[in-house]
Amino acid sequence: MIIKIYEVQDCLTEEKIASIEKKFGIKLPHDYRVFLLKNNGGWPEPEGFDISWREDQECGKHWRTSSVSRFLSIDAGQNADFLKYNLTTFKGRVPKDTIAIAHDPGGNLILLGVAGEYVGNILFWVKDYECEEGEVPGYDNVGLLADSLVEFINKKLR
Predict the structure, then answer these.
(1) How far apart are the C-alpha atoms of 57 and 62, rounded to whole Å?
(2) In terms of residue numbers, what domain contains 19?
(3) How far is CA 4 from the centre of its chain?
């Protein structure tokens, strides 16, 4: 499927991506690096997707589908700012091996696994089911969207 991404910000350079990796102490998956070089933020069309949950996940009973409202952008000075989301707004609220790369219309997040079991995977985080303040965030409120960003964009958006 061919998707279009609208309202992208200035594309990033390899140097800027390397500085983000250094700031976060991570190595971004190749497909996300390529995405940032071409599309810094923006909203996709089509934007809808299905969410896969484990049987024991309560939020899976209520969240079967959603959509990408906007991919987060880096250094674009807007409300979908990658650094603000990951360093301030959602710091300590999402699993430590993930970063936010997009959000849905309801403020839930599309995450990218950057280490551990879910490295490279695209995940869906439901804010209404997040852990209590002071608890370590786990994956109870996180569903699987795709094994990679390429799969998510090319095969899962509808």
Answers:
(1) 10
(2) 4-156
(3) 18
| pTM (whole model) above 0.85 | yes
pLDDT in tens, 57-95: 999 988 999 999 999 999 877 668 999 999 999 999 999
What are 2-26's pLDDT values in tens digits? Answer: 799 999 998 899 999 999 999 999 9
d(CA 40, CA 11): 5
Q: In the β-sheet with 109-113, what is the strand arrangement from edge to edge? A: 70-71, 98-103, 109-113, 122-125, 142-146
Cα dihedral 53, 50, 136, 95, rounded to 10, equals: 120
Q: What is the Cα–Cα distance from 125 to 76, expressed in whole angstroms? A: 24
Domain count, the chain: 1
Q: Which residues of 34-67 are buried (b: 16+ CB within 10 A; e: fewer)?
A: ebbeebbbbbbeebebebebeeebebbeebeebb
